Prior knowledge:
Number of strands of chain A: 13
Radius of gyration of chain A: 26 Å
Structural class of chain A: alpha/beta
Largest interface: A-B, 42 and 42 residues
Order of helices and strands of chain A: HHHEEHEHHEHEEEEHEHEHEEEH
Oligomer: homodimer
CATH class of the largest domain in chain A: Alpha Beta
CATH topology of the largest domain in chain A: D-Maltodextrin-Binding Protein, domain 2
Amino acid sequence: xxxxxxxxxxxxxxxAGSITRAASRLGYTAxxxxxxxxKLEREAGAAxxxxxxxxxxxxxxxxxxxxxxxxxxxxxxxxxxxxARLAGLSGGRLRVGTFVTAGIHLLPPVLxxxxxxxxxxxxxxxxxxxxxxxxxxxAGDVDLALTHAYEPAAADPMPSGLFSETLLVEELVLVTAxxxxxxxxxxxxxxxxxxxxxxISSAPEHPPRRGVERALAEAGATPAVVCESPGYALVxxxxxxxxxxxxxxxxxxxxxxxxxxxxxxEPAAFRRTISVVHRGDRNTAAATTxxxxxxxGFGRASAA
Amino acid sequence: xxxxxxxxxxxxxxxAGSITRAASRLGYTAxxxxxxxxKLEREAGAAxxxxxxxxxxxxxxxxxxxxxxxxxxxxxxxxxxxxARLAGLSGGRLRVGTFVTAGIHLLPPVLxxxxxxxxxxxxxxxxxxxxxxxxxxxAGDVDLALTHAYEPAAADPMPSGLFSETLLVEELVLVTAxxxxxxxxxxxxxxxxxxxxxxISSAPEHPPRRGVERALAEAGATPAVVCESPGYALVxxxxxxxxxxxxxxxxxxxxxxxxxxxxxxEPAAFRRTISVVHRGDRNTAAATTxxxxxxxGFGRASAA
DNA sequence: GGTCTGCCAAAAGGAACACTTAATGTACGA
DNA sequence: TCGTACATTAAGTGTTCCTTTTGGCAGACC
Lengths: 304, 304
């Protein structure tokens, strides 16, 4: 059972004439390819390459295996195309709406997987802050959209003909600058402890988070800075710089490029739900496929 | 690029009718196969399997991919056979002589690799304690033989028509029962410290180790038990039981099933060289191939 | 002759992957 | 209601693979 990646490496060397060139053409470093080819030679039980001082050629055995390799790679390519055609995806397009955070942290691996399986589907990603995503699906501007809803808050009803499926529920956690963690212990922090703390908040009248901001105000947190920017990049940067604390989704806290200290809150009253809005029976095949990937993809994300 | 192992799993499920049966037929557990198939489905971007309550069937997409998979696996099989034929190995045989320790610790992974590449070569492994291995190659009883030579000792000259290639040089180290390590420190132990220690030794007149035993006697070690058994399994067992200390090859000390404390000696005068004895130009193709595997295989063994 | 350049290989460290066992879920038949 | 058969989920462990760094080697060039 030869690893097709290694077979592709062999073919690439045959065509490029050197390991280094083949590696850069495939997007690897030269040592990586050298190791893989050495393993392939061991597995094949024969010398496949002749190392020249001006490149690398294939031996007779190498040419033979490269020939079979081309056929193997061809079969796999055909399989991919056939599967795409069977799924009715070939040549179609897929338009995804997403809010900023999901677009940064969640969507990329899923879209990568989709693209690998269906390279000829035209992909479009558009940024919509909720509830604009729902509107976009309703208007037919996108095939599906990722949205979020915060608790405590009232859930907006779905327009008729649209459906919402929950992908992930995550807690909101407290983030502070490193070394500024409030009080002792590592367990959940009572919300009351936020009283008097300078709070970096989203716009209080920003619909999705309205309930959260009000609850924080009731706990006695002191508004320090109000961020009007979509997403949490700015909030995290300000918190990391020591301007105050903030309550953000767990995923944001963990993936933040700025260093942050993270702490859960008690009681765990703050949550956000990430959902995908779609058209149900009227979904395109591409949309259905992406939704399947979203489901398993988010399963992995929550496990990590 | 579909992993051929996963493709084989899909074919196996198609033929077995259930994941559990396919798994046991392939030598895996059911969860392993289930996970691999789930990944294949994600990669393919389509549902391949229909989970019944009485087994698992393939969907149309699954059947399609399974068909391509059969062809891919076929190509790989053909490639293997062609490579074997090209190497002149098909239907041949390979007889290997080895001393006990190498047969236990070094040869198995190399033979496994050889067998995978050339399943139709008839393999024979025979146990020869040096210098009988050289004689066996000279007599044509085996195609090649692994032998060892200890230092200090005189190297026997090769009979004409035979050649010896060094594969590995390893130090001899001191082993004791756990908790009985002599003196302090973790650096190399001066040989003089062995004076008066009870020594588990190989037969003093056993040719390969004669020089080693004599040097240990000169250092003042007290013979406690003399082992006449080939290999070091018995020596290690006695040492581990606390009957005395011993000086054994590093590889033996590290791979011993009985728990042992290991310490290097100073000066590092004791070594053994593991070589392969062969016929040079008159080697069979199979022998040449195995020697290539031995070279890279021992490279890995020394790295581990 | 000495230096530079291009190419390949070895070593070490970190991230990802695949396997295992154990536990959970689900439909069917007695 | 229980027992069986099948599949999945979860958690832990070992291996694999890729990257960076380093070293060696042959020809080109000054």
